[in-house]
What does this fold into?
Amino acid sequence: MPERTAAATTHERPDLTQPLDEATAAAVDAVYHLYDPPLWLVTSSESADAASTRGGCIATFVERGSIVRDRPRMVVGIARQHHTWRMIEASGHLALHLFPESSIDLVWRFGLASGKHRDKFASLPDQRTPLGSPRVPGASAWLDCRVEDRMNTGDRTLYLTSVVAGGVVDAEAAPLTVGRLMALAPEDKRTELDRLYARDGAIDAAAIDAWRKARRAD
It folds into this structure.
């Protein structure tokens, strides 16, 4: 049997560095497309006080963080450049909303502009959760969450939250998902979503690279 040299072994080993080559990135993307995550509207406020500054954004990085019925948790990832991130950091609480296809306008309101430049809550009533986060009309369900811990990943902060309240407004309404959003979006809205996704992706990539570089330096 031919001897296996170190050089041969190294040559056969796949390149596991990032950024990934296009073929590997496409393979990973295919895995992601096997499931269709719901869209979540994440809201927060500068404080629990009535009329305090509010923030809200559309997120897909929201997952259940506990199977214990009386100790529910959620894990929420929010990009650090978002206005809503600043509100969560200031107050330590956030609210999560699921909404139906009939409320797709909430995506255009909260997903196509920054709260740094305009009030996304203009014309909406100032309704609050028990912790003081904004409640948004049109949602089919909501959760009120207090931040228990956080982790900086460079491009975003991962929040581990305890859920202290919540409710279902319409049990018959299926939550709007990423796939359904793209199927329902008119051409102009889809073009804008694609543009913002590419812009945010470039910001996130630079933040991840800087974070990794800083960790290597340490």
The domain at 36-177 is CATH 2.30.110.10 (Pnp Oxidase; Chain A). The two ends are 45 Å apart (CA to CA). Helices lie at 6-12, 22-32, 83-91, 105-111, 178-184, 187-217. The beta strands are 40-45, 54-59, 62-64, 73-79, 93-98, 127-128, 134-135, 141-152, 156-168.
